[in-house]
Specification:
single chain, Jelly Rolls, five-stranded antiparallel beta sheet, 1 helix
């Protein structure tokens, strides 16, 4: 019996590279970055391969914004530091450390860092009912 895992079962965030999308507006590329830690779907390549989920970390600098966008995968954010004005659909609220936010598939959402420090959050996408193709779906700005 092989007791060694075939792929990594843990990773350290400090070992993962920060990414920015070349498709994002220049101002966003300067203020927003992410690390993928788990997953191997579409643009989301993490250290821990997984076909049904992707998970990572987002940072949004003070004064930065992530414009309204949507995607086919459902998403959860969990804020760990900073503060942002967050909009999901028609609802706008202040997100602070300890707040979890759910974005249903194809629901427009945006964040504006109006706080005095960098916003940090953990994000998580998954494949409902095993439909992993949603994880490769394009992010589109609304």
């Amino acid at each position: 019996m092989n007791t060694q895992p075939e792929s990594p079962v843990h990773t350290a965030a400090e070992q993962a590279e920060w990414h920015v999308s070349p498709h994002y507006p220049e101002e966003l590329r300067r203020k927003c970055r992410w690390k993928s830690l788990v997953g191997n779907a579409g643009n989301w390549i993490g250290s821990i391969p997984q076909k049904d989920v992707v998970m990572g970390i987002l940072e949004l600098d003070q004064g930065g914004y992530y414009p309204a966008h949507a995607h086919p995968a459902p998403e959860i954010y969990f804020v760990t530091a900073g503060e942002a004005e967050w909009t999901v659909g028609e609802e706008t609220f202040t997100a602070r450390p300890g707040v979890a936010i759910y974005h249903a598939p194809h629901t427009p959402h945006r964040m504006v860092n109006k706080g005095s420090e960098t916003l940090r959050a953990i994000w998580f996408w998954w494949a409902p009912d095993g439909s992993a193709e949603v994880l490769s779906g394009e992010v589109y700005f609304t």
